[in-house]
Structures are given as structure tokens and as C-alpha cells.
Amino acid sequence: MKKFAFLFIMVTSVAIVNAQDITDALRYSSDELSGSARVRSMSGAFGALGGDISSITINPAGSAVMLTSEAGLTIGNYNTQNENTFFGNNTSDTKDQFDLSQAGVVLVYNNTDQNAKWGRMSLGFNYENSNNYSNRNFIKGLNTNNGIDKYFLAYAQGVSLENIDLLPNETVDDLYQWLGENYGFAEQQAFLGYQAYIIDPVSSDNLNSDYNSNAYYTGLDQEYTLETKGANRKFTVNFATEYDKKLYLGINLNFHSIDLKKETYLSEIGFDADSPLQETGFKNYLETYGNGFSLQAGAIYKATKNLRLGAVYQSPTWYRINEELSQGVFGISIDENGNEYSPDVVYPNVTNIYEAYKLTTPGKFTGSLSYVFGKAGLLSFDYIRKDYSNTKFRPVNDAYFSTQNNQISNSLQATNSYRLGGEARIERLSLRAGYRFEESPYKNESTVGDLTGYSFGFGYNFGATTLDLSYDIAEQDSNYQLYSVGLTDSAAVNSKFQTIMLSLNFKI
After folding, report:
1. CB 238 within 8 A of CB 124
2. Average confidence (pLDDT) over 464-492
3. How far is CA 394 from CA 146, 292, 314, in A?
């Protein structure tokens, strides 16, 4: 593709409302397993434990369990493997990324008054990669149902020909930009399909608003690639305190940051010999960035010397999100004698900069218990309740957002998640393992299935310094829909998510 300098334009809300859907809502509402290698090796079952810097993002009271000030960081590798089935054809793809997963510090202040009910206090700061978007997927198959022509037709019907036909001396960039500024996303898609000769008007009348496809086929060889980069990152400010050496209380202020780059490309061949259209390619590049805020309040209670109970409430996260989109399409066509025309390449030198929108993701409740076997080890269990149907695009009185919110409410559900972790200590060496299960957020689990994961790891305590290593793997089935309209066929995807993390913590 030829490189261009971008022309930046503001697109009205008419355009942006076609960009957000239930998939986006779920993406920014979901949390991966995160934290230090010790936390991850026990599958995140730390709600009643504390004592680890990154555990404060699970239960804010956890920092008050720590006896001394500590600092630490975690680095590691994220690996995603996808196995796809599309119209009976199997493909696979994988992507690795090395990144800083977590870094933080907890400062502990001990009350020297032995008779005081309020004991030590702690102040913590933590950064973590709470959701890694590094992913790549390759889908291929012989589609006997739909082609990309159906996508462009869905948007073109009802659009006046005079709006998408180039005037003398008018460029592709000029008209694509004008459509975005004055009409919106649908008209831009109609324009792309028409200019690439994928669709044609029924009549040449300027007021024509009915279109036909130039694609004839009984089956199309389609190749679809998806690549995403970026992360949802969270910075936490924590305060916690101990009361009567049994009760630990804490609060978090969480500052969230979204950075997502998503690129898709579809190519099609295999059209009938008499089809005016013989080959297509369609590219979209979306950048999403935004910020959010949430609160957490938590408690840990020592019911007995060995038994601990934990409870945490996390508020909804309130996001403000921006998106930028660039796209292009090409078509190769032939005349009635089978002679090939020059390719119709329509790559507007324009980036659509949409108005910011707001998203409120659901809060969640975590209940935990753990049993500590003295210096020999421990077992810990977390239960998490989260209602994804409470996710909301805002403003809620916007007609399009209202439709999407109704779809979210009807399609998503409250979920239960379970995490179990254990640790065995042999002098300075700790051996760890964990299991987690997360219910599908969809009422129809064929869209996205349940997630099951396992984790393992070990750590060594050098005294003032600890070194921890973890490995975790999770698996989930889903159906990935290529486009929201027209070409709506789905690929069955089996995804495996693996991470290897290394943490270094030291007392300060």
C-alpha cells in the first residue's frame, strides 16, 4: 500500500455510533490474570492473603499484612495461540510479546505504641498490565455463503448515488472526507464499495439509492488476518491499615489506560468466470486510546491463627475512549470479453478521528478464604461475582448507544469465577500451583465459552530479596464474527493463553 501523510478530520456522532458494539464493551470489561509471578503461580487466589505488592490490586487490605517495606517488578512473555475452523478449513496462528507486567512499592509504617488498637499503616503504588491485547489470528476457508460485497451492499442501500459519485476534479480523499464530516460511516463504506467496483447502482440516476453486487460466486476463497497490539494498564494508589492485629482494611484509587491497535485484512478470490469482479481486498486499521477510573475497598480478617477471610468490592470503571480509523479497499474486475481492467484501488489518505464516547464497565465482588499451615504452606480460594449485563455505553439516551445497551443487557450475564491456589514451603524454597475457572459472560456460550486455567511456579527467599518464577495457561473457545453486517460468518476459535513471568522483590 502506498504511504501517505494523514489528513485529520472530525467525524460527527453519526459516524462513530457505527463503531462501538458488544465486542468492544466486553473487551474493556474483561480482566486477565495479572500480578507478580507469585500471585500468578497461584492463579490469583490472593483475596484473603495479602503480603505481596501486586496482591493489593486484588484486595487493597493486603498491603497492611506486610511487615516491612518492599519494592518489586515483574517481567515476562505473553503467548497467544489460536486454532481456527472456517467452513471446514483449519488454520493456526501464534504471537509472542515480552513486556513489563508489574512494578510497585509498598511503604509500611509501624505504630510503636504496643497498646494502640490501630497498628501499622501502609502506602502502596502499583503498575500492572491488567489486559494484554497482543494477538494474531489467520482465518481461511471456502465461504459458500457471503462475500465482502454483502458488507458494502448492507451499508449502501438507501444512500444516494449523487453522494458517492466523484465530481470532475474531485479526489477520493476529498469525497471520503466530506462524507465522514457530513454523513457518516455508512456513506463512507458505500463510497468504498462503489469506487472499487464491488457494487453498482441499479440506475445511473443521481437519486438512485438501490445497489447490486458485481460479484458472482458459488464459493469464495477468503483469507482474513487479525492483529492486535497494546494493553489495558492500571496504576493503583493504595492505603491500608491494621486494627487490633486481626482486621486489615484498605482502599485503592485505580487509574486505567487503554492503548489498542487493531488491523484486519480480508482478501477474496475464486469468483465465477463471468463475474465482473474477480478479486478484492479490504483493510481496516483502528487505534483506540482512553482513560478510566475505579475504586476498590477491601478487608482481611484473621478469624483464627490459621484461618483468614477476605472481602473486596470494586466499583465500575468509568472510561472515556477515543478512536481513529483508516481503511482502504481494492477490486480487480474484467469486461464482458474477460479482459482485466486496471485495479480499482481506493485507499483514502484520511484518518477518521471520532468524537470521544464513554463506557461504564461492571463492578465486581470478591469473597475469599485461606488457611495458613504455619511455615509449611497455605491454601487459598477466591470467588468472584461480576455482572457483565451492567456494562453501558454513554450517553444512554443516544439512540444507537441505547440499542447497543439493550443488546448487552439481553446477551450478557452475571458470571461466577473461582480461583484456587496453594503454596508449599521447604525452608527457603516455595512451590506453588493454582487453578481458575471463569464462566462465559455470554448467555449463549457458543459465542464465548468458559475459561479454564492452570498455573505453576516456585520462589526462593534469599533474605532481603525474593525471586519468583511462574507459568500459567488458560484455554477458551469462541466464535469470531468477521464483520458486524453483511459478511457475518464466524470462525470457530480455540485460544490458548500462556505466560511466563519472573519477579524480583526486595525489602527497603
Report:
1. yes
2. 96
3. 33, 14, 20
CA–CA gap between residue 128 and residue 56 (Å, rounded): 11
Whether the predicted pLDDT of 126 surpasses 50: yes
- In residues, how long is the chain? 508
Confidence of residue 130 (pLDDT cuts 50, 70, 90): very high
Residue 452 domain flag? yes
CB distance 339 to 359 below 8 Å: no
Contact assessment for residue 321 and residue 357, using Cβ atoms and an 8 Å cutoff: yes
Cα–Cα distance between 12 and 15 in angstroms, integer?
Answer: 6
> At 400, is the pLDDT very low, low, confident or very high (cuts 50, 70, 90)?
confident
Mean pLDDT of 91-95: 96
Instruction: Give the CA-trace dihedral at 192, 195, 197, 200, to 10 degrees.
Output: 90
- Residues with Cβ within 8 Å of residue 211, at least 6 apart in sequence: 153, 156, 157, 190, 194, 199, 200, 201, 202
User: Which contiguous run of DSSP H or E holds residue 374?
Assistant: none
CB distance 471 to 431 below 8 Å: no
User: How far lies 80's CA from each of 77, 412, 499, in Å?
Assistant: 10, 25, 9
Q: Which domain holds residue 409?
A: 7-144+215-507
Position 207 in a domain: no
User: Residues 214, 277: contact at Cβ < 8 Å?
Assistant: yes
Work out the percent of the chain whose per-residue pLDDT is above 70.
96
Q: Is residue 52 part of a domain?
A: yes
d(CA 254, CA 251): 10
Q: C-alpha 403: how far from its chain's center?
A: 22
Query: Which residues are within 8 A (CB) of 313 and not within 5 positions of it... i.e. 6 or more apart?
Result: 296, 297, 298, 363, 364, 365, 366
Contact 46, 380 (CB under 8 A): yes
CATH number at 63 reads 2.40.160.60
Q: How far is CA 312 from CA 46, 48, 127, 365, 369, in A?
A: 11, 10, 19, 6, 12
Kind and range of the H or E run holding 370? strand 364-372
* pLDDT exceeds 60 at position 60: yes
The predicted model scores a pTM of 0.91
Percent of the chain with pLDDT over 90: 88
| Domain annotation covers residue 115 | yes
pLDDT digit string, tens, across residues 161-217: 999 999 999 999 999 999 999 999 999 999 999 999 999 999 999 999 999 999 999
The tally of domains found in the chain comes to 1
